[in-house]
Amino acid sequence: MKVLGICGSPREGNTEYYINVVLDELKNKGFDTELVRLKDKKIEQCTGCYECVKNKKCVLQDDFHEIMNKMIEADGIIFGSPVYNGSITPRLKALLDRAGFSGRWMKNELKTEGGKYSWGNMLFTRKVAAPITVARKTGQTFALAQLLLWLTVNDFLVTGSNYWTIGSAGTSGAVNANEDQEGISIMEHLAENIEIVIKKMSS
Predict the structure, then answer these.
(1) Residues 190, 160: contact at Cβ < 8 Å?
(2) What are the domain boundaries of the chain?
């Protein structure tokens, strides 16, 4: 059982810390875990070319494909982002746009029945996922909603915790997530829930 953590932060800081809290808990429970830092990757934005419809994959050539393959192989994925002006980071948004759109056509055709699309299983159908957002004070709920909307339109099973999966850290750019005891406990409980859901899905 493998859980992938994807960190949308352009630095090694608070977002990565919270993701690692979850991954470390899962690793201790016997899961295979991996962290991908988007700051080290080149991911262009979706160009809306629709080439993925006929090619069954995104045709832009960059680090997207490496990450997409990891997403396909994982049983669970944690998506984490700091909040920039009330939103997730541009590089994470680019990854999600391309994964969601090209992934849709990897399992389906661009055709309608009675003027409406008839979807079957999606590329990410019933993969377990959870969003994490981090901010000094506010903006988390909108960024969290962005991630939740993407997860639910792509047929993930979204796992929650005993509070919204947000972290409060980073005043004046500080890397101090380790001081957010409430946030840490939320992430630890999130790991417990991810474990339960993945194991039930695989049983």
Answers:
(1) yes
(2) 2-202
